Amino acid sequence: MLAQWPTQNWYPRRDKAPSDATRMLTLLTRLDDTALIERFLTEVTAAGHYDKADNAAILDALDHLPPGRAKTLIERIVAGTATTALGASADLLVRAAAAWGPERAATLVGAATRLVEALPGDPAARPAPREPWQRPSRVDPAIVIDLLTGLSLIDPMLADRSLDHTLAWPKTYDLDAVLIPAARTLVSAGTIQGMAAIDRLQAACVAHLRARIAEPLSPPTDSQRVSTLPCHCHHCADLARFLADPERQTWALKAAEGVRSHVEDSIRRAGSDLDTTTDRRGRPFSLVCTKNQASYDRRAKQRRQDLNDLSRLTG
After folding, report:
1. Cα torsion 303, 304, 309, 314: sign
2. Do β-strands 286-291 and 274-279 pair in parallel, antiparallel, or remain unpaired?
3. DSSP letter string over 82-110?
4. What is the edge-to-edge ordering of all strands in the sheet holding 250-254?
5. What CATH code is carried by the domain that includes residue 254?
6. Which of 165, 64, 70 is nearest to 113 (CA)?
7. Structural domain of residue 249, as residue ranges?
8. CA dist., res. 96 & res. 106, Å (int)
9. Is residue 59 part of a domain?
10. Which residues are paired to 47 by β-bridges?
């Protein structure tokens, strides 16, 4: 079965049913076949055919191996899969560190180092996956939670190093989409106590929130709106003049469909504070643009969220 195990066009399961890998490892564990457990984890799991849902079965199987061999296999799995299965690798380390206890968790330093070395940084410089069916890992709050928790249990210096990396690449580890949600979860779970890297994450998120809360926030006092547009054709130039006008609230562009679509595209790309409708009376139709205060509404909504997050992170 291992010799014929499929190795092409593999994708993680989207349903909750046990994967073929989990079922195979469960059977090998019940058989206590340590040789085949090692072979499966080396030839299948570490080769990249690996999903986060397999981790419980992997740890159960590793419990049947000598501690030194189990540590080596985890390092091999992380080294082979962290680029394309970062979340799974981080989850495996935090599970192993929690299950093995402080002394044995320290033996995972090699695997943890491999994980930190594989962390994505500059989004423009990510290495191409080894196989066409593989995809680079996407960073989400769960990965940061597992990363900092696991590394803090294994080696606090590595946890600090990983946090330095995440803070250095805000386009990959977005504060609002990734780091603040991760900090909220860590603080609410009480994980933060005694873990310096998580304390630092909390402090960075609090500083970001306080800086944005300190920015002035008030609704527009007239009809002037941001007038920077991605296009400078004469139709978009007319639109820009309308946006900059503090008096005019509505503007109509009577033009062919292609021109109207182009101007609407410029509005979308710029995020302009405009509502658009099409007036179908007469030919050609008219694109009617009416100013709104969407930017202010978004910032007001963000301010409410920032205040709530600040309260949760400091309370």
Report:
1. positive
2. antiparallel
3. TTT-HHHHHHHHHHHHHHHHHHHHGGGHH
4. 250-254, 286-291, 274-279
5. 3.30.1370
6. 165
7. 234-292
8. 11
9. yes
10. none
Separation between Cα atoms, residue 57 and residue 33, nearest integer Å: 14
Please name every residue paired with 24 in a beta bridge, in sequence order, or none if there are none: none
* pLDDT value for 133: 46
Q: Cα-atom radius of gyration of the chain, to the nearest Å? A: 26
The last residue of a domain, from among 95, 119, 143: 119
The Cα 159–Cα 149 span in angstroms is 8
Question: What stretch of H or E contains 290?
Answer: strand 286-291
Summarised one tens digit per residue, pLDDT across range 182-225 is 999 999 887 656 689 999 999 999 999 999 999 999 999 999 99
SS3 state at 288: strand
Say how many domains are in the chain: 2
Residue type, 86: L
* 117 token code pair: 């070395």
Phi, psi (deg, nearest 5) at residue 286: -115, 140
**Count of C-beta atoms within a 10 Å radius of residue 53:** 18
Name the stretches of the chain with pLDDT < 50.
Answer: 133
Decide if 156 is inside a domain.
Answer: no
Q: Which residue has the tokens 């070395």?
A: 117
- Does residue 274 fall inside a structural domain? yes
Which of 58, 91, 119 is a domain's end point?
Answer: 119
At residue 291, φ and ψ (nearest 5 deg) are: -70, 140
The DSSP secondary-structure symbol of 140 reads -
Give the span between the Cα atoms of 224 and 293, in whole angstroms. 10
CB contact set of 237 (below 8 Å; sequence gap of 6+): none
Q: Where are the alpha helices (DSSP H) in 155-282?
A: 156-168, 180-188, 196-213, 234-244, 257-270
Helix (H) or strand (E) holding 175, with range, is none
Rounded to 10 degrees, the C-alpha dihedral 228/233/235/236 comes to -10
Contact 291, 222 (CB under 8 A): no
pTM of the model: 0.83
